[in-house]
Every structure is written in structure tokens, then in C-alpha cells.
């Protein structure tokens, strides 16, 4: 079953040229949105992808470029899509902060008895490291990432094949282990051009990966000056916003 990925955005948090780094994963007729940032509703609109084409949303952490579009989605599902309950895959450590620190301010409505995440979504709780079949032919595993101290954040392994960093500091040991063991064939990794990479992997850190592995690394979550770095990424390439990639 071929996994396909279309980035609805590839930009860093403050990018003004690219949408937020959020991904559509297509597998066996199922469509999973990885992260739903502030620009996700507009990006999907530009791609002519209706909300109802998405079967589930997975959240990696609660920065707004990853969850800022959730309020609009929740309201549209409730009031414009006849209370359609979309699946929402949430790491267990994010359940409390996603509602109480992020969405509750806009979505809570006691008069309509809307007081929790489950009142808007069909919440499916994921435990880190435990491989979970989210749809026939689509498995995901959450890997805790180092991003912001004391704030849970996750990278994802899709179908034991594609590593998707989301927002993560450079973790050379993990990346090499996944590559050398043959566990993952492709690595979609966030990339910050300035060094040091304080909360993201920096380009100079990623360039220390062995050359054969770099051929399997596709860079994402980049800032607006990406054009200055074309040809300066070793054997790594930049993923293009909106293009459909197949991972056989
Ligand atoms: O300790 C911090 C916290 C945040 N930031 C910036 O805010 C952004 C939030 O979204 P992001 O995680 O995609 O990227 C982050 C960085 O650009 C930072 O530089 N240092
Ligand atoms: Zn981000
Ligand atoms: Zn982040």
C-alpha cells in the first residue's frame, strides 16, 4: 500500500511565503491531516480540499502553527457540517493542554453543553512509542521529540517507513538508528537555517548526517529565505508545498 504525502504548507512558524508545516497523508483511501495550524483552513481551501475529505487529524504539539486552525475546524464541523465528528488523534500528554491551554477559550459553551474536546471530535488517545493502526494499512508511532523543554512534542513514524520529525531538535542518535536499522527509508525533517538550532534541527546539524542517508532526507518547516539555500543542502532536498509525494 503506497503512502502518499502532500504538505499543505512547508513554512516555519513565522513564514509569510509558505503555509504552516502541516501534512496530508493518503493511504488506502484514508486521509490523515498531521497538524492543523492557523493557516491550514486557507491552505486546504486553496487546494480545493473540503474539510469533509479529511478522515482524521493528528496533533504533534500545541504551538499555533500546529493547532491554530483547530478552532475553525471544530466550529465548522459543529455548525456547518451537521455536527460531523471527525477523528482527532491526540497523544495522551497533550489531551489536557490541547483543551485547557489552547482550544477551550474559544470552544467552550456551557449553554450548549460543549465543555470538552469530545464534544467536537471523536478523540482517539495515542500513547507514545506504541504503534497504532489508525486506519487499515496506516500505522503510526509517536516518538517523543526534544523541542521545547517541559512541553510534550512528538515526531511520527508512518508505516515503519517514513520518519516525520514535526518540530524537533536534531537527534543524531535516533536518526542514525532508524536509518541504519533499515526501519525508516525516508526522513521528513524540520530545518532551521540559522545555527545553533535551539528548538529545531539546524541545517548545519543535518549536514553532518552521512551522505547516503542525506539522499533520504527531505527538509521541511523552512523559512522564507529557502531560495538562498538551494544547492547548499548536501544531498538533502526541500519538500515542495502542495506537491504529492509517493513513498513506496
Ligand atoms: O524557546 C523558543 C520557543 C519558540 N521559539 C520560536 O517560536 C516558534 C513557535 O513555533 P515553532 O516551534 O515552529 O518555532 C518556534 C521558534 O521559531 C523559539 O525560537 N524559542
Ligand atoms: Zn512549528
Ligand atoms: Zn513547535
TrEMBL record:
Keywords: Endonuclease, Hydrolase, Nuclease, Zinc. The keyword Nucleotide-binding does not apply. It holds the Pfam family Anti-Pycsar_Apyc1. The keyword Ribonucleoprotein does not apply. InterPro entries: Metallo-B-lactamas, RibonucZ/Hydroxyglut_hydro. GO terms for molecular function: 3'-tRNA processing endoribonuclease activity; metal ion binding. It catalyses: 3',5'-cyclic UMP + H2O = UMP + H(+); 3',5'-cyclic CMP + H2O = CMP + H(+). Residues 19-221 form the Metallo-beta-lactamase domain. SMART domains: Lactamase_B. Counteracts the endogenous Pycsar antiviral defense system. Phosphodiesterase that enables metal-dependent hydrolysis of host cyclic nucleotide Pycsar defense signals such as cCMP and cUMP. PANTHER family: ZINC PHOSPHODIESTERASE ELAC PROTEIN 1. This is Ribonuclease Z. It comes from Paenibacillus piri.
Amino acid at each position: 500500500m503506497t503512502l502518499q504525502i502532500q504538505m499543505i504548507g512547508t513554512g516555519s512558524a513565522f513564514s509569510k511565503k509558505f503555509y504552516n508545516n502541516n501534512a496530508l497523508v493518503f493511504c488506502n483511501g484514508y486521509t490523515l491531516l498531521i497538524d492543523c495550524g492557523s493557516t491550514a483552513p486557507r491552505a486546504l481551501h486553496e487546494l480545493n480540499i473540503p474539510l469533509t475529505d479529511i478522515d482524521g487529524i493528528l496533533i504533534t504539539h500545541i504551538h499555533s502553527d500546529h493547532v491554530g486552525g483547530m478552532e475553525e475546524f471544530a466550529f465548522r464541523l459543529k455548525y456547518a457540517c451537521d455536527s460531523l465528528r471527525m477523528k482527532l488523534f491526540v497523544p495522551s500528554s497533550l489531551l489536557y493542554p490541547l483543551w485547557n491551554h489552547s482550544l477551550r477559550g474559544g470552544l467552550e459553551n456551557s449553554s450548549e453543553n460543549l465543555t470538552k474536546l469530545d464534544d467536537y471530535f471523536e478523540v482517539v488517545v495515542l500513547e507514545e512509542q506504541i504503534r497504532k493502526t489508525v486506519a487499515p494499512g496506516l500505522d503510526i508511532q509517536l516518538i517523543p521529540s526534544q523541542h521545547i523543554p517541559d512541553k510534550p512534542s512528538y515526531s511520527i513514524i508512518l508505516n515503519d517507513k517514513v520518519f516525520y520529525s514535526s518540530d524537533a531538535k536534531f537527534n543524531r542518535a535516533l536518526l542514525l538508528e532508524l536509518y541504519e536499522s533499515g526501519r525508516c527509508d525516508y526522513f521528513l525533517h524540520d530545518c532551521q537555517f540559522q545555527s545553533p538550532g535551539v528548538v529545531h534541527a539546524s541545517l548545519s546539524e543535518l549536514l553532518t548526517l552521512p551522505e547516503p542517508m542525506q539522499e533520504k532526507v527531505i527538509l521541511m518547516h523552512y523559512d522564507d529565505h529557502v531560495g538562498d539555500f538551494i544547492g547548499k543542502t548536501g544531498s538533502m532536498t526541500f519538500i515542495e508545498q502542495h506537491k504529492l509525494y509517493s513513498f513506496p
